[in-house]
Every structure is written in structure tokens, then in C-alpha cells.
Amino acid sequence: MKKGEKKIRIPNPHSRGDIHISLVKEILRQDGISRDEWEKV
């Protein structure tokens, strides 16, 4: 995901299952991305 000049990499576990929602929320919180912004992507 890109926000302005900032790129955020969300891990892709492939064979290890889904990324836990708490990890995604923490990454987005630390980078100042709202839930609405995330859902628009």
C-alpha cells in the first residue's frame, strides 16, 4: 500500500495461513492509516 511517498509492506504468509487482524491493525495504526483509507485500497 502507498500513502503519499510512504510505502507499507504487509507480510504475505502464503502457506502459513492468514495474517492476524491485530497485526494488520497495528501496522496501519503505526503508519497513521485509517480503516476507511485501508478499505478504499
Question: How would you briefly describe this protein structure?
Answer:
This protein is α+β, with helices and mostly antiparallel strands and 41 residues long. It has one domain.
For this entry, give a set of tags:
41 residues; single chain; 10% strand; two-stranded antiparallel sheet; 2 helices; alpha+beta
Topology, element by element:
Elements: E1 2-3, E2 6-7, H1 21-30, H2 35-40
Antiparallel strand pairs: 1-2
**Count of alpha/pi helices:** 2
- Helical proportion? 25-40%
Q: Provide the β-strand percentage band.
A: 5-15%
The tally of structural domains comes to: 1
Uncertain regions: pLDDT < 50 for 5+ in a row? none
Helix vs. strand class: alpha+beta
Could you characterize what this model shows?
By secondary structure, this protein is α+β, with helices and mostly antiparallel strands. The chain has one domain (2-40). 39% of the residues lie in helices and 10% in strands. A hairpin with a 2-residue loop joins β1 (2-3) and β2 (6-7). The longest helix has 10 residues, at 21-30. It is globular and about 30 Å long. The chain starts with a strand and ends with a helix. The mean pLDDT is 78.
